[in-house]
Structures are given as structure tokens and as C-alpha cells.
Automatic annotation (TrEMBL):
Cellular location(s): Cell outer membrane
Family, as annotated: Belongs to the alphaproteobacteria porin family.
Cellular component, GO, one term: pore complex
Function: Forms passive diffusion pores that allow small molecular weight hydrophilic materials across the outer membrane.
UniProt KW Signal keyword: yes
Chief location of this protein within or outside the cell: membrane
Any GO molecular function: porin activity
Xref: InterPro entries: Porin_alphabac (IPR003684)
Topology of this chain in the membrane: Multi-pass membrane protein
Protein name: Porin
Length: 405
């Protein structure tokens, strides 16, 4: 009986303890709901909502590896017998040039009562013969509706509206069309029936040079058949003076400011998507920021010993898209009467250039591109130096492999 009483008492005690523990059991809180990344399809593929916001973000970019070659002139060498100006110190160099580039674009957008609000940052680094990292902010700008402000391509090169009115030929290099990046504030307008217009106030020094900015404006129409446009740029800091020559006094220019005008058109080929013909006609009153530039046949260590752009310039380009993954383009450019660099002094020398470009996408987002370029400049004549020199033509090209993401 004593053993039985002991067992019953122990069981009752255990039951009481178990009941007490059940009453005091720890309740584990449910995890907070997780907001997973949501796709944002308002601005195209690749955008997603930043968690907890209504801002859409896209990260994109590319990596390329490029092998290039060319023959070109340098400003060192024995020069020409009897020359004491330094203009003709030149040698011809040949060789391979390799480069690898990494680029990352960060694009954030959201809708507001004033239109789409956007900010874009482009981070880039190139390792190669002439430039070696590190990564830096290559561009950064803000957009609100049609307003844009920050550091990016000049509207002379790319107003980010107007379709084919931006850049030059169909190739990556684009021939010579005046590419440059600027600190700017501008406005773009896109109307009905393909009408577009843009205007920007731009700074070419980022350091302040008075209170008058450069001004660029563009207007045109882009429709299914193609596009036509006119572009004007005013360089307020251009004075047309040839810098000090080797042993010679500066030559005063005639201009206080300079301007360039371009008429352009693209005609799309019927029943051949992606195929088109482009023509650009350009005039500039000096070798300033809104001249398209030229093959700068360098013969000496000073700026005046090579050419700037020309008074008149014509660029024609044709691209044929053979398949959805393979296309080829050819282009020709002609310069009439080159200016000496940085001046409004004409040299009487003409030049021409040509290129061919092949682009193939063997798989999605992987590009194989090859371009071949040739330039030929007429007999070089330095200011106040009678002896001419007729340079050889220059040929260059590259093979590039690019992975986009």
C-alpha cells in the first residue's frame, strides 16, 4: 500500500507540473510578411520595384573585349631635312591595341504629377593601351518630363529624342559627327505626327568662363518612312585665333563665337526592317565645338600643326539588315577646306574617309562586331610655312566581343 500510494502521488505531482508548464508555454511570433521584388512593366523589360517604394529600378550594362590595329602618325621622329618649325616631326606607328571595358547603368524611374521622374548613372572603366581604370562615374543626369539636367552627351550628339537624328553613321564609331559630353540643362518635346524638338544650354569647360553658355537646338520629324531634321550649335567661347606657333606669332581670328549647322535625313528601306540610308550636310564657321571634326593628321607637338574640322562636310551611310541577327553598313565622309585646329583659318586642304561595319549576334545579348576605317588627308600646309607635305592615308579597325545584360 505504501508503494502504491507513492506511485499515485508521484503521478499527480507530474501531472500538476506538466499543467503548469503548459499554462506558461512560450508562444513563437509569426514572421513578418516579406515583400518580394515585384516586376515593374511600366518602362519596359528589366525594371523592378525597389521594395517599399513606387520607384522602378533597372541595372544594365556590358563587358567587351576588343582587338584593334592601325597605322597612325606620332609627334616624335626625325622630321624633314631642313625643317625648323617642328611641324613635320612624325613617324608612322603600327601595332595591336587591346582593350577591355566594363559599364554599368543604374536607371531609376517613377511617375509624378509633373511626368516621369528619372535619374541615370553610368559607371565605366576601360583597360587598354591608352586608358587604364579605375571605374568612374561617366555620366549622371536627372529627367522630369521633358526636362533634363546633369552631365551627359551634348544635344549636338544625342538629345535623347528624335530617333535617327542622334549620332552619325550606322557604325559604332559613327564616323566624324562631333561626339562630346557636357554639363547641361535642356528640354525635349515630342509632339504628334512624329514632330520633335530639343534645346539645351551647355558648358564646355565645367569651370566657368563668363555667364554665356553654349546653345544647341534641334527640330525635325520622325515617321515610319524615316526622318528629317536640322541642328544648330553656338560655341560662345570660340575666338578663331590660331595658338602660338613654333617661332611664329599668333594669328588672330575673325570670330567672336562660332556656330555650326547640320541638315540630316534618314530614309528607311521598304520591306526591310532595320535597313536605312542616312545623309548629313554640315557647315561650320570655324574649328570649334560644333564642327564635326576631321582626320587630325598630326605632324608636330603643337595644336596648330594639325587640322580641325572643315567648312563644309558631307556624310552618307547605308545599313542593310540581312537577318534579325546580322547586319552590315558602309559610310563615306568628305571634308571641303579644313580649318587649322582651334581656328577659323582655312588651309585649302580637303580630306575624305570611309568605313565598313559588320555586326552579328550569334546568341541573344552577345555581339560580335568588326569595323574597318580609312582616312586620307590632302597635302599638309602649316600656317606661314610654304613647304607642303602629303601624308599617307591611315587605316584602322577592330574586332570586338560584347556581352550585354
Amino acid at each position: 500500500m505504501k508503494i502504491k500510494s507513492l506511485l499515485l502521488g508521484s503521478a499527480a505531482a507530474l501531472a500538476a507540473v506538466s499543467g503548469a508548464r503548459a499554462a506558461d508555454a512560450v508562444v513563437i511570433a509569426e514572421p513578418e510578411p516579406v515583400e518580394y521584388v515585384r516586376v515593374c512593366d511600366a518602362y519596359g523589360a528589366g525594371f523592378f520595384y525597389i521594395p517599399g517604394t513606387e520607384t522602378c529600378l533597372r541595372i544594365s550594362g556590358y563587358v567587351w573585349y576588343q582587338i584593334a590595329a592601325g597605322n597612325y602618325r606620332t609627334n616624335s621622329g626625325p622630321g624633314i631635312a631642313g625643317d625648323t618649325t617642328g611641324y613635320y616631326d612624325s613617324t608612322t606607328a603600327d601595332g595591336w591595341m587591346k582593350s577591355t571595358r566594363a559599364r554599368v547603368n543604374i536607371d531609376a524611374r517613377q511617375e509624378t504629377e509633373w511626368g516621369s521622374l528619372r535619374s541615370r548613372i553610368r559607371i565605366q572603366s576601360t583597360w587598354g593601351t591608352q586608358v587604364d581604370g579605375p571605374a568612374s562615374i561617366d555620366q549622371a543626369y536627372i529627367e522630369l518630363g521633358g526636362l533634363i539636367m546633369g552631365y551627359t552627351e551634348s544635344f549636338w550628339a544625342d538629345s535623347k529624342n528624335g530617333g535617327p537624328s542622334n549620332y552619325g553613321s550606322h557604325s559604332w564609331g559613327g564616323m566624324y559627327y562631333g561626339y562630346q559630353q557636357r554639363h547641361l540643362i535642356g528640354y525635349r518635346f515630342d509632339g504628334s505626327n512624329g514632330f520633335f524638338a530639343a534645346i539645351s544650354l551647355e558648358d564646355d569647360t565645367l569651370a566657368g568662363e563668363g555667364y554665356m553658355p553654349d546653345v544647341v537646338a534641334k527640330i525635325g520629324v520622325s515617321q515610319g518612312w524615316g526622318a528629317v531634321w536640322v541642328r544648330v550649335g553656338y560655341d560662345e567661347s570660340f575666338d578663331g585665333t590660331v595658338p602660338t606657333l613654333s617661332g611664329l606669332a599668333p594669328i588672330a581670328g575673325l570670330n567672336d563665337g562660332g556656330f555650326g549647322v547640320q541638315l540630316g535625313a534618314q530614309i528607311n528601306v521598304p520591306n526591310s526592317p532595320g535597313s536605312s540610308f542616312r545623309v548629313f550636310v554640315h557647315y561650320a564657321d570655324g574649328a570649334h565645338a560644333y564642327n564635326v571634326g576631321s582626320p587630325s593628321a598630326i605632324f608636330g607637338p603643337t595644336a596648330e600643326s594639325y587640322y580641325g574640322g572643315s567648312e563644309w562636310n558631307v556624310l552618307v551611310s547605308y545599313n542593310h539588315q540581312f537577318t534579325a541577327t546580322f547586319g552590315a553598313s558602309v559610310a563615306f565622309q568628305w571634308w571641303n577646306d579644313l580649318y587649322y585646329a582651334g581656328s577659323d583659318l582655312l588651309s585649302g586642304v580637303d580630306a575624305w574617309g570611309a568605313e565598313v561595319s559588320l555586326v552579328w549576334f550569334p546568341v541573344q545579348d552577345f555581339e560580335v562586331r568588326a569595323e574597318l576605317h580609312y582616312d586620307d588627308v590632302g597635302a599638309f600646309r602649316a600656317p606661314a610655312t610654304p613647304a607642303p607635305l602629303d601624308p599617307d592615308g591611315t587605316i584602322s579597325g577592330f574586332l570586338r566581343f560584347t556581352r550585354y545584360f
